[in-house]
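Q: Could you write out the predicted structure for this multi-component system? I'm mainly interested in how the pieces pack against one another.
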Amino acid sequence: MVKHLFRLDVLFVLLIVLSIASMFVGVSAISITDIFSLSEYQQNILFSSRFPRTMAIIIAGAALAVCGLVMQQLTRNKFVSPTTAGTTEWAQLGILLGMIFFPAISIFGRLGFATVLAVLGTLLFMRIITSIKFKDVIFVPLIGLMLGSVVASVTTFIAIRENALQAISGWMHGNFAMMTTGRYEIMYITIPMFIIVMLFASRFTVAGMGEDFSKNLGLNYKFVLNTGLFLTAALTAVIVVSVGLLPFLGLIVPNIVSIFRGDHLKNTILITALVGAIFVMICDIIGRIIIYPYEVSVGLVIATVGSGIFLILIFKRAKHDR
Amino acid sequence: MINVKGITKYFGKKPVVDDVSISIGKGRITSIIGPNGAGKSTVLSMVTRLLSNDSGEVLVEGENILTQPSDALAKKISILKQSNHLQLKITVRQLIAFGRYPYSKGRLTEEDERVIDETIQYMELEEYEHSYINELSGGQRQRAYIGMTIAQDTEYIFLDEPLNNLDMKHSVQIMQILRRLVRERDKTIIIVIHDINFASCYSDDIVALKHGKVAISGTKDQVIKKEVLEEIYEMDMNIEVIGGQQICVYFDEKCTTANELSALQKVKVAQ
């Protein structure tokens, strides 16, 4: 029954409906019936705040969910994601270093720093998990979480020393309230990256079957692995720089899609992107109405809902593996 | 024709494979046998470029495998390692479709779909086509994996312990499929196998390894001999001819007494 919801057409319609809802939920009352008679103020709100916000939600949700999907496939572990591999923490450290070395750094500069550190951090994580012998499904993400926490502590430490704690708190909790014209456009960088991920879908799936399996089929395993890790780290960096931390998203969305649609990326990549966008959209709308007219940051809503789903997944899989 | 010339592999300072030279004839089943730790799987991995060799070379039709592009080689040789318990939800059809990757890089053409359909039929997997491989029994799963190498449509097929964890019925089923592939499609098959009687009953040639070296390599009749096998496995062994097949009896000294031997013969014939 639920399985039928996980179809491209159904999800696409759902996303459109939610996007329209998102456009009309907020402090300044704009009703959908006003659409043909918008005042200048309403137009302004709609096009410089609500539309960018909705686009940012779709892009961030889709990108992080797809990142998790690709990382899980490449590491062959269902519990690896930008959050549980420490990628997001590395990206935050990158932003901070960028701001310290170049105080007047542009958003592209910050993105550059975040990407470099996120890529290096992900490579380090891969190094560690390929060299440890004990490869329990839960153990691998625990290493990532620990690594992430260490990096986050370093970030906080440097921030305190440099008096930059205020500045970085913005990247600790994801928030779409700041997404206005002029601030969200950087997120469109993810579109070409997303297209490359789509083109590599079959290759990622083959690589996920293992190194020997890939070599037998003549796939350049190392190249595909590195391409995938670079793309996921860069995508994560874009989202952290523009929106901030959206925990658990890359973890739970691919797992839910996998239950209903299997693990062949050709079949799941678009669905995962749509479910990711829908999930974030719902969480953001909840955050906007729960203490109306104030707002709860979307990161907090996702963390609350997400950690619950994450626990259910852990128990389900732990039972399954025994 | 595959020529392996003096390949050697060191793990640390110890040679696991030491100067192994063999040649593999076309259109035959060649079994690689030997005690645990003899280097069978390592040899197989080196011959199929999964593992680099420290010295020596492997020639497929006279061409060194390391100088050929990997994707071109994937249309000539395929290798199936012992299937590791995958948690991925991949259907039988998707798995078999992976075999077409060297040809279409993931964009299946009509020709690919035709090969996949035909392979599913050949392996009698129609019923399970859309089942996930982790939901199948060991025998069905092994058939699906072998189906993938068939879809890969290579002249040479290497299999690393394809009978691992299979019961007798499914082991025989797999070996019969391999025989059919040689007979009907003129494939060349090289398997690493532990069960010496399966090697004896189903192979044309046998390569026996011991301590990383070739102990003997030749036709089945040259290798399945009492003195040869006792030397390789360092245990007493008797060879009986049952129904035209050479069967090695090695369970216990008592096995050689007439009564129990005839009882054992019945068991083996039943297999």
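A: Regarding packing and overall arrangement: The longest helix of chain A spans residues 40-75.
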